[in-house]
Structures are given as C-alpha cells and as structure tokens.
C-alpha cells in the first residue's frame, strides 16, 4: 500500500468514526430521552437535553433543515476532490477534513431521515445545545487553524 493509499484510508476511518459516533449517540438519546427531557451527566458542567432542531446552528432557519442537505453533499464532494487531488497535504488537514465531512454527513443523515437534527450536548458554561456532528465540525475547523498556524511559523522560521 502506498503512502497516499494509507492516508486516504486513514481519512475514511476518521470520517467513519465521526459519522458513527454521531449517529450512535443520537440513537441512544432518541431511545432514552423524550424531547425536552434532560439527564445530568456532570452536575453544574454537562447535561444531555434532547432538542430536535429543524434549522441550523443557533436554531436559525427553523423548518428549512432539508435545504442544508444539498450544501452538505456539495461540501463533502469538494473535500473528496481535494483529497484525491492531493491538496490535503498534512495529517492535520486530512483529519480535519475527515471530521468536517463526517460532521456534515452525520447531520445530513438526520435531515434526510427526520427533517431535523437531534441535538443533546449542553455545557452549562456555553450557550446552545449541540451534537457529536457539530463537535466533529468544530474539531475539523480547529485542526485546519492549527495547521495554518504551524505552516505560518515554519515559513517564518526559514
């Protein structure tokens, strides 16, 4: 197996991990909590609160969840294009892209099946209720930012 094949394989493993973590956690929440119910995980820090969001982040565009499915498909297509063209050069870029694509797919699955996404992770110190797909997207963004900072520092040190 070539280095490129191995990196592509790792990309798919990370992407699948993001999708599976998201979907399994949402299934568990749907089976154990009714909408609006909560489960304290860590008192004063974290609770699971089931919320069905038919919009996007911060509950914007309620009722228009299906409009985001084509955007997710296009986004994942762009990520795959970049991957196969060899434009995701570092491990941080590939893992970040896998997290972004996995998160987009995870929420697109919900929107396709239910016309809404199941959100449930609520940290008391933060506003909003998120799901694992949202966190995968956030991690992906952070990894890209980290790669940009590292690249800038390396180019500056030359």
Number of strands: 3
Question: How many helices in DSSP terms?
Answer: 4
Low-confidence stretches: none
Q: Radius of gyration in whole Å, from Cα? A: 17 Å
> Helix/strand-derived class?
alpha+beta
Oligomeric state, counting identical vs distinct chains: single chain
Helix fraction by DSSP (H/I, runs of at least 4): 55-70%
Q: What is the CA-CA span between the terminal residues?
A: 33 Å
Q: Could you spell the SSE succession in H and E letters?
A: HEEHHEH
Q: Major β-sheet, in short?
A: 3 strands, antiparallel
Overall 3D geometry? globular
Give the strand content. Answer: 5-15%
The tally of structural domains comes to 1
Mean pLDDT: 92
Catalytic activity: Release of signal peptides from bacterial membrane prolipoproteins. Hydrolyzes -Xaa-Yaa-Zaa-|-(S,diacylglyceryl)Cys-, in which Xaa is hydrophobic (preferably Leu), and Yaa (Ala or Ser) and Zaa (Gly or Ala) have small, neutral side chains
Organism: Paenibacillus hexagrammi
Pathway: Protein modification; lipoprotein biosynthesis (signal peptide cleavage)
Main location: membrane
